[in-house]
Amino acid sequence: MNWIDSIILGLIEECGSNDIYEVCDYLGIDIVKLEPNNAILLGNESVYNRNFFNREVIFIRNDFAVKYARFVISHEVCHAVVHTSIGSAAFNGDLINKGKLERQANYFAFKFNNIKFDEIQLYEMTMEQISSCLELPEKALKQLFNEI
């Protein structure tokens, strides 16, 4: 996904930072941390909303470790920056390849955060253990390792 790599480089250059919180600030995306059971989250870890009272907002659970939260916010920034036409395609919701969009957003988050894997450190660990050790979503890790 070289095209996503190019978007990330351009975004970092434009914003003058590779800190996801500074990027959100530059883009005018608010980050709102909520209790995990808040109805706005719809049972998800996070939700990106482009039209929340004429604002762009990432709603995220307030109980994540720092690295985990950065990954999840980066994932949502991908939806904000790369998947800009999805909101206008809502009437075709059944035709949207949500799995593809989620893979792209996870790839974006891995690359944006420059996440590297130490094979020796992670040797013989379960996916749950790797997720805990690296403070990353297990679902995104499973997706990544299934595609390698």
Textual characterization of the structure:
The protein is 51% helix and 14% strand. With 148 residues, it is of the alpha+beta class. It has one domain. A three-stranded mixed β-sheet has the order 1-3-2. α3 crosses α4. The longest helix has 16 residues. The two termini are 13 Å apart.
Note the overall shape.
globular
Approximately what portion of the residues adopt beta-strand conformation? Answer: 5-15%
Sheet with most strands: 3 strands, mixed
Please report the number of helical segments.
Answer: 7
First-last Cα distance: 13 Å
Number of domains: 1
> How many β-strand stretches?
3
Order of helices and strands: HHEEEHHHHH
Mean pLDDT: 90
Oligomer: single chain
SSE-based structural type:
alpha+beta
Low-confidence stretches: 88-92
Report the C-alpha radius of gyration, rounded. Answer: 15 Å
Strand order of the largest sheet: 1-3-2
- In helices, the fraction of residues equals 40-55%
Protein name: Putative Zn peptidase
Domain IrrE N-terminal-like: 24-139
Organism: Clostridium pasteurianum BC1
Entry keywords:
148 residues, alpha+beta, three-stranded mixed β-sheet, globular
Give a topology summary.
Elements: H1 2-15, H2 20-27, E1 29-34, E2 46-52, E3 55-61, H3 66-81, H4 98-112, H5 119-122, H6 127-134, H7 138-147
Parallel strand pairs: 1-3
Antiparallel strand pairs: 2-3
